[in-house]
Design goal:
This protein is of the alpha+beta class. It is 32% helix and 32% strand.
Length: 185
C-alpha cells in the first residue's frame, strides 16, 4: 500500500531500509526526547525493522518509509500507524520520526494528517492516538494541529518525564471538516 500527499511519498517498510532506519534513529538529535537514546547499532535497527515488517504482515498496516515525492528513493523519515502498548494501555498509535534536515517544514503535520485520514477512511479505525514526552513541544503542536486532543499522562519509564496521550476518534475527525481538509490552524 503506497500513499502520497502533496509533498510526501509513503511505502511500507522493507528489510532493505535498515541503513536508513539506523541513520535516522541512531542520530542523537532525533532522540532528544527519547529516554532510551539513539539506536546503539545496526543490529538493533534490523530487529526493529523485522518487527515493523511483521506488523504489516499480521495487521495489514504499519510503518512506512517516508520520502519526498520529488525523490522517492531518498528516505527522510519513518512513521505510520501501529498497535502499541504503553503502561498497559493499548492504542492505534500514530508515530513518526524525521531526519533533522526535514524538520521545520510542516512535513510531520502533513504526514500525521494523511496517516489519520488513511486510518479512518481506509482502515476504519475507531480511534487513533499518539504519545509524546511532556517536554517535546514540537510534536505536541503537530498532534494538536492534526486534531488530536490531550487525554492524560502515561508513566512508562522510571526517572523520565511522562508521556502525554493524545487521541482522536473517527466521529471527531468527521465532525470537523477543517481537520479533514488539513487546514486546522
Amino acid at each position: 500500500m503506497h500513499l502520497q500527499s502533496e509533498r510526501l511519498y509513503l511505502r511500507p517498510v522493507r528489510p532493505s531500509d535498515t541503513d536508513d532506519l539506523f541513520r535516522i534513529y541512531g542520530d542523537p538529535a532525533t532522540n532528544t526526547f527519547n529516554p532510551a537514546g539513539p539506536y546503539p547499532d545496526i543490529k538493533h535497527a534490523q530487529t526493529v525493522l523485522a518487527r515493523w515488517v511483521s506488523h504489516w504482515a499480521n495487521n495489514g498496516f504499519g510503518n512506512w518509509a517516508i520520502s519526498l515525492l520529488e525523490s522517492p528513493e531518498k528516505i527522510i523519515g519513518f512513521g505510520g500507524l501501529s498497535i502499541s502498548s504503553y503502561a498497559n494501555t493499548t492504542i492505534n498509535n500514530l508515530g513518526y520520526r524525521f531526519a533533522t534536515h526535514a524538520w521545520g517544514k510542516g512535513l510531520a503535520t502533513e504526514f500525521a494528517l494523511n496517516s489519520i485520514r488513511y486510518g479512518f477512511d481506509t482502515l476504519a479505525l475507531n480511534e487513533i492516538s499518539a504519545v509524546v514526552r511532556s517536554h517535546h513541544r514540537a510534536s505536541q503542536h503537530v498532534l494538536l494541529k492534526s486534531g488530536l486532543r490531550y487525554v492524560r499522562e502515561i508513566h512508562d519509564v522510571n526517572n523520565a518525564s511522562p508521556r502525554l496521550l493524545f487521541t482522536l476518534t473517527r466521529d471527531e475527525w468527521y465532525a470537523n471538516p477543517s481537520i479533514i481538509n488539513g487546514v486546522l490552524q
